[in-house]
Amino acid sequence: AYIAYTSGSTGKSKGIVVSQGAVENIVKSMISTFKLSSKDKFLMVTALTFDVSISDLLIPLTIGATLTVATQEQKRNPKKLISIFDKQKITFMQATPCIWQYLLNAGWVGGKQITALTGGEAVSNNLAMSLASKVKCLWNVYGPAEATVWATYSRIIKDNSEITVGKPFNGVQIF
Description:
There is one protein chain. This protein has helices at about 20-35, 50-65, 70-75, 80-90, 95-105, 125-130; strands spanning about 1-5, 15-20, 40-45, 65-70, 90-95, 110-120, 135-140, 150-155, 165-170. The protein is α/β, with parallel strands linked by helices. Helix 1 packs across helix 2 (about 50-65).
């Protein structure tokens, strides 16, 4: 399907060949795990150069959902990004913890219709608890580029202090 270039933990650039089957697996797994449907409204804040953009683009296309792609200007201005949630009635977004913190610092109040995914870096307990209280559900996702976007998921419940990488998506093994 594509080649992802990453230095991973080695610091040496390498190309990761990702098969169409692997992409299909993560898309179907995420749709099933997060109970996504054509009624959902996705907000994409991920750069096209980041592997997460694959699921950001393909999930809504697969299920016939709405996808709003934030512009660079909107991503640089948290108030503009926040306004998209209200105007578009967003129900799903995946982002790094620093993006979620950026929104909360700007006064984002969340929404009980939003399924939020956080990944790409460790999420602090404080951020996780704050975010979990503002959305329908919060998931911690983890996966190196070699695993095709995400490999594992774990639901974060408000007042639950343990945040783990969780269990594998369908068709993924972890050791």
